[in-house]
Design goal:
This protein has 286 residues and is an all-alpha fold. It is 73% helix and 0% strand. The protein has one domain. Helix 5 (120-151) crosses helix 6 (159-183) and helix 6 runs parallel beside helix 10. It is globular. Residues 43-278 form the ABC transmembrane type-2 domain.
Length: 286
């Protein structure tokens, strides 16, 4: 009796295992498709992948004669803007690219068609998240290479700095991607997606210490920016690439790693909840 009862359980376990493995294989193959599709879209490549690199080049050349360090602390424009551009790249690759891309796929019926295929929602989102991770890594590597090779920016040599870079990057890219999925439900159509998403992304960059020294902003604007994750991701990247003396220029005088983890983690959880509640496979007016 026991042996007879065990057979359905074993068969069910094998089916579940096959289903999970099958989903993961589909998701992995979807990553390759998403990455290829991403780099075939010239507008996406420029405005999300290359845009931070272009800004880094412009700022580095335009302010090449200025010293952004303190007394006796030489810091070039390229070194100063590098961490902000890396953080902005996370926002562009995750929030902007994901929100616009999914909104367009929903509007033109792509999501509706995918919903009826064996791909499944889990494999679809594995593909999207994998694409954001890969393009974000390539973008960060390109920014660092340009800063080091073209402008002679000295990169950190301490392993602790690169460990900080790793966890801030992974936390940031995941949070931004999830928030991009949640934000994709806001535009009513694919045509309006860029008009809805880009202003949000642009404003966050201006108030979060990406283009302007955060301590130079009015105190009330610093408070507003501190609610959002980009301000903390920028500070995390600054702790990696800027001298430790720059910590004194933050409102608390330290790099606040606990707050970086806390605020970004809260947005990650909030993004997961919003994505779960608001995501739809068909457009609102369908």
């Amino acid at each position: 009796m026991t042996a007879i009862d065990a057979r359905p359980v074993a068969a069910s376990a094998r089916t579940a295992s096959f289903g999970l493995a099958h989903t993961l294989r589909l998701g992995a193959s979807r990553i390759g498709y998403e990455v290829r599709s991403y780099f075939r879209q010239s507008d996406s490549v420029f405005f999300t992948f290359l845009f931070p690199v272009v800004l880094l080049l412009i700022f580095s050349v335009a302010f090449s004669t200025q010293n952004f360090g303190g007394p006796g602390d030489e810091l070039s424009a390229a070194a100063f803007y590098l961490p902000g551009m890396v953080a902005a790249g996370l926002l562009l690759s995750g929030v902007q690219n994901m929100a616009v891309d999914i909104a367009m796929e929903r509007s033109d019926g792509t999501l509706k068609r995918l919903g009826g295929t064996p791909l499944g929602p889990v494999a679809y989102f594995i593909g999207k998240l994998g694409m954001v991770l890969i393009t974000g890594l390539l973008q960060a590597a390109l920014l660092i290479a340009v800063a080091a090779l073209a402008f002679g920016v000295e990169l950190p040599s301490e392993p602790e700095k690169w460990l900080t870079f790793a966890w801030v990057f992974l936390l940031g890219v995941t949070t931004c991607a999830i928030l991009g999925i949640a934000l994709s439900s806001l535009p009513r159509s694919g045509r309006s997606a860029t008009a809805v998403v880009i202003p949000i992304v642009l404003v966050l960059q201006f108030i979060s210490g990406v283009f302007i020294q955060f301590s130079a902003l009015p105190s009330w604007l610093q408070t507003v920016a501190s609610v959002f994750p980009l301000r903390w991701l920028a500070q995390g990247m600054q702790s990696v690439f800027l001298p430790d003396s720059f910590a004194s220029m933050t409102p608390s005088g330290t790099w606040d790693y606990e707050l970086i983890l806390l605020v970004t983690g809260i947005w990650l959880v909030a993004g997961l909840v919003l994505a779960r509640v608001t995501f739809r496979w068909i457009r609102k007016d369908a």
